[in-house]
Amino acid sequence: MSAAGTWDIRIKTPIGDQTARLEIVPDHAGGFTGTVSGDPGSMPISGTIAGDNVRWSMKTTKPMPLDLDCDATISGDTLSGGVKAGMFGTMALSGTRVG
């Protein structure tokens, strides 16, 4: 199934669940562009798509500056995976397609 679309995602962090909206717009070269919108605001992202797997990186400033490496597998209208957050290790990532 295509990764394209809008996803409501949840990341289980040490300070509680963080929610955001993920927009994925695939290109024709195995990548994608999009946005992640949530409490800290909206940020553009880009990443790769390989089969059912999507990967992207992003930076956050709340509650502290962190580089986040995201890796998720799509199964139908759900996604699951992890977010590597530096010294905090990998946090669980889940989501559902909107619409």
What do you see in this structure?
By secondary structure, this protein is mostly beta strands. The protein has one domain (5-97): Lipocalin. Helix content is 0%, strand content 72%. The chain is built from no helices and 8 strands. A hairpin with a 5-residue loop joins strand 7 (78-84) and strand 8 (90-97). The protein is globular.
Walk me through the topology.
Layout (H helix, E strand, L loop, with lengths): L4 E9 L2 E11 L4 E8 L2 E10 L2 E8 L5 E10 L2 E7 L5 E8 L2
Antiparallel strand pairs: 1-2, 1-8, 2-3, 3-4, 4-5, 5-6, 6-7, 7-8
Give the terminus-to-terminus CA distance.
Answer: 15 Å
Give me the CATH superfamily.
Answer: Quinohemoprotein amine dehydrogenase alpha subunit, domain 2
Secondary-structure-based class equals mainly beta
Mean pLDDT: 92
At CATH level 2, the architecture is Beta Barrel
How much β-strand is present in the residues? over 45%
CATH class membership: Mainly Beta
Residues in helices, as a percent range: under 10%
Principal-axes shape call: globular
Note the main sheet: 8 strands, antiparallel, barrel
Describe the structure concisely for a colleague:
With 99 residues, the protein is an all-beta fold. It contains no helices and 8 strands. The protein is globular.
Please supply descriptive tags for the structure shown above:
99 residues, single chain, mainly beta, Lipocalin
